[in-house]
């Protein structure tokens, strides 16, 4: 097989990371420029756009840590992004579930990383609730990370089933 016939690496999936990053940054820009911090716009009886700053990680973990968490969480995001890019390079582009998962997590990680580096916090605005119960606000980058993680779990279960089937 010649080099021109090789299957391309998973790096071709970086287009998805860039698309998710662009959508994330665009939505955050619109929120920042059209809403006041803390402002909430009712969209549905269980969903609002609520402009918030998150100084911590998921569910505001470490948000009251005094500032060091910005650098710690940024370092983790950079390390994960480098690792995911390395893994994408080693994958064949036709391994679409893993490539899709890595590209989604990478796009989300970079989106939140840019927020931390530029602002010192992550901009959140998607807010679901029911009566007195409120799910913590999140953003497009968070959705990409969770979706990618879900695909990784899916792949872990389905690829182990395939391996067991071959051994039987």
From TrEMBL:
InterPro entries: Peptidase_A8
Keyword Cell membrane (UniProt): yes
Pathway listed: Protein modification; lipoprotein biosynthesis (signal peptide cleavage)
Pfam families referenced in this protein's UniProt entry, alphabetically: Peptidase_A8 (PF01252)
Hydrolase recorded as keyword: yes
E.C. designation(s): 3.4.23.36
Reactions performed catalytically: Release of signal peptides from bacterial membrane prolipoproteins. Hydrolyzes -Xaa-Yaa-Zaa-|-(S,diacylglyceryl)Cys-, in which Xaa is hydrophobic (preferably Leu), and Yaa (Ala or Ser) and Zaa (Gly or Ala) have small, neutral side chains
Residue intervals passing through the bilayer: 12-31, 43-62, 68-88, 95-114, 134-157
Function as written in the Swiss-Prot or TrEMBL entry: This protein specifically catalyzes the removal of signal peptides from prolipoproteins.
The protein's name: Lipoprotein signal peptidase
Organism name: Pseudoalteromonas fenneropenaei
């Amino acid at each position: 097989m010649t080099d021109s016939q090789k299957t391309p690496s998973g790096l071709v999936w970086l287009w998805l990371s860039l698309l998710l990053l662009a959508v994330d940054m665009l939505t955050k820009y619109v929120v920042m420029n059209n809403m006041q911090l803390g402002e909430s716009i009712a969209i549905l009886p269980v969903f609002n756009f609520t402009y918030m700053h998150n100084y911590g990680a998921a569910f505001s973990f470490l948000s009251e840590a005094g500032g060091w968490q910005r650098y710690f969480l940024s370092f983790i995001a950079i390390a994960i992004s480098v690792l995911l890019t390395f893994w994408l390079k080693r994958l064949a582009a036709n391994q679409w579930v893993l490539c899709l998962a890595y590209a989604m997590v990478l796009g989300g990680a970079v989106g939140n990383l840019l927020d931390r580096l530029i602002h010192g916090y992550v901009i959140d605005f998607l807010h679901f609730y029911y009566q007195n119960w409120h799910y913590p606000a999140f953003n497009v980058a968070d959705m990409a990370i969770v979706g990618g993680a879900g695909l990784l779990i899916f792949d872990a279960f389905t690829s182990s089933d395939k391996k067991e089937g071959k051994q039987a």
